[in-house]
């Protein structure tokens, strides 16, 4: 960032770090709780 430009994007929603098992499991559980159980659309 000191020698170049930084590109950022602001978004609504929740972000998960799926680079490891814990983040992937958190994302899977979030989808299950918020979409499959409630029937909401993405």
From TrEMBL:
Q: Which domain of life is it from?
A: Bacteria
- Keywords of the record: Nucleotidyltransferase, Transferase
Gene Ontology terms for molecular function: nucleotidyltransferase activity
Name it: UTP--glucose-1-phosphate uridylyltransferase
């Amino acid at each position: 960032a000191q020698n170049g430009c930084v590109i950022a994007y602001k978004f609504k929603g929740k972000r998960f770090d799926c680079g490891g098992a814990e983040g992937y499991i958190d994302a899977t559980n979030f989808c299950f709780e918020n979409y499959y159980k409630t029937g909401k659309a993405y």
